[in-house]
Every structure is written in structure tokens, then in C-alpha cells.
Amino acid sequence: MYEDQWATERRRLEKGRHISGPDGLRPRWRKAVFTRLLDVLGAGLRVTPFYARGQANALNLRRVELALRLPGLPPSFDGYRILHLSDTHLDVLPELAAVVRGLLEGAEVDLLAVTGDVHGDHATPVARSAGLLGEALRGIKVTGAQLAILGNHDSQAMADQLMGMGFEVLVNRSVVIRRGDGRLVFTGLDDVNSFYTEAARIALDAEVQPAGSDDCRVALVHSAEMADHAARAGYALYLAGHTHGGQICLPGGRPLVTTLRRCRHGAVGLWHEGAMIGYTSAGVGVSHPPVRFNCQGEVAFITLRC
Ligand SMILES: [Fe+2]
């Protein structure tokens, strides 16, 4: 019933004249203007030699290995392996599916976390992006849960696609993962950059039964924009994406644009908010124009340590 109510509200927001973020509403036309400007930039780039170079950069993914010490992690989760993928957008650059498959082939992880923006181009059916993600994941073995959340490019229909692929889609709710005598709580939010509702903040703050247990918690949120709330709520880890690491950056990797409205220190890579560790993936894929400069896409293997 909750999922039905969420789906109805989400579809209403998708058709609305405003975009909703934690800092309030903003008119959708502004985003449309920004998107149009990117289209013009892409069209200009396409007639230059930089376009081919930028696309080659976008297809050159790296495999990131991180070991993160989490305060309060139950000993039974020491060594727990998470594959973190974000912003796959494989409909925008379908050749990336084979690249990802090559990088993941033969790997084994305990949990897969996809932090949104599986879809890219609104004109493409969501089944196309989801199907390409399925192809990209064919060679990896996930022994535990496959969790996914939605990004600002994902419509409500993407949740249905991902559930059909065996993902547990977390829209403003938590799931408890057990290992030995320990438990780790993952709380996933609907995208807060464009589809924020109070349900997101309530889910972040909600206790997970049994109430009062001293859980180690991981937040999955498409953008870092709830980092301060999550840190105050006592989360140990916050996994995000959304920024694509900037996608087009200055030499040295400084993003020209992040589109974060708040918590901008969480735009790229590892960061901290109070005692909480945050990691923002540079993303697998790209949005239009489908190029990268001074910013490499990634798949991230995260090993949790006590
Ligand atoms: Fe994205």
C-alpha cells in the first residue's frame, strides 16, 4: 500500500511544473533551459576533434578499491564487500555496457548497491536502460542483496523495471541485512534533488525495529544533499552519485558544474560529515553530451572494516 501511494505521488511530481529539493521548489523551466544549453554545447563539440576524445574518455572506466572503517560495524561484517554503481545511464552510451561487463567479469561481492540514474534520456524507454544494466552485470556474482534507489533521471517506472530484475528498490525505507549475529541497516531514499518529499527525511530519521538497537547504518541517496541530516541521524556511511564527478572538469579534476543545491563538499569521492564517511561515485555513465574530460568514470568495490 505504501509503495502504491509513493508511486502515485512520484508520477504526480514527474508531471509537475516544479522540481522539489530539500531547500524547496524551483521551476522546471530553469532545468529545461540548462538541458538545452548542454544540448547546444554537445552539438558544438560534435564538430570538433574533442568530441571523439571526450567519448573515448567516457568509455575508459576505472575500478576503484576502497576499504572503509566504520564505527560500530558488527564484527561479523568485517570484510563485507559492496559493489557500488551509480549513474549508469547506459542508454546514453550503450557501448559502456560491454566495458562494465569486462571490469566486473568474475568478481564476487556480498551486496550490490545501485545509487540511481539507471536511465538517461527521457525519450528512451526505461526498459532499454534496465536491459543494458542487466547485460553489464551478467558476469558478477552477488551473494547477498541487490539494492537500488532512484535518481533524478529515473521515473517511477524504473522502480518496476529494477524489481523485475531482482533488485530490492528502496524508496524511503530501510532493509536489515544480517550476517552471523550482526546486522547492518541500509536506508534508501527516493531522489532528493528533484523529487524530494518529507517522506525522505522521515525515512532517514526512522528507527528500525527492534527500536533502540544500536545499529550501524548506511544511507543510499542519489545525491549528497542529505548528508547533514544523515550525519545527525547517526549514519556511519553515505553512498551517493549524481554529479558524475563533474563529468567535464578542469585539469586536476575540478568540476565545472555539480548541480548540488546543498552539501557541496560531498560532490566528488570520499568526504566526511561529522563522524559519517561519505562516498560519491564519479558514476559509470554520462549524461548529454556523452563525453568526459579530466574526470574518469568508475565502478567501486568497497570493503567494510571494523
Ligand atoms: Fe546522473
Kindly list the characteristics that best describe this protein.
Purple Acid Phosphatase, chain A, domain 2, binds fe (ii) ion, 28% helix, 8 helices, 306 residues, six-stranded mixed sheet, 18 strands
Describe this structure as you would to a colleague:
By secondary structure, the protein is of the alpha/beta class. It has helices at residues 2-15, 28-46, 49-58, 96-104, 126-136, 156-164, 198-205, 227-232; strands spanning 18-21, 24-27, 62-69, 81-85, 108-109, 111-115, 141-142, 146-149, 168-169, 173-179, 182-188, 216-220, 237-240, 249-250, 254-255, 269-273, 276-280, 298-305. The protein has a 6-stranded mixed β-sheet with strand order 3-18-4-6-8-9, with helices on one face. Strands 10-11-12-13-17-16 form a 6-stranded mixed β-sheet. It has a two-stranded antiparallel ribbon with strand order 1-2. Helix 8 (227-232) links the parallel strand 12 (216-220) and strand 13 (237-240). The model has no long low-confidence stretch (mean pLDDT 94). Bound molecules: fe (ii) ion (FE2). Fe (ii) ion is lined by residues 87, 89, 117, 151, 153, 242, 244, 283, 287. Fe (ii) ion binds at residues 87, 89, 117, 151, 153, 242, 244, 283, 287.
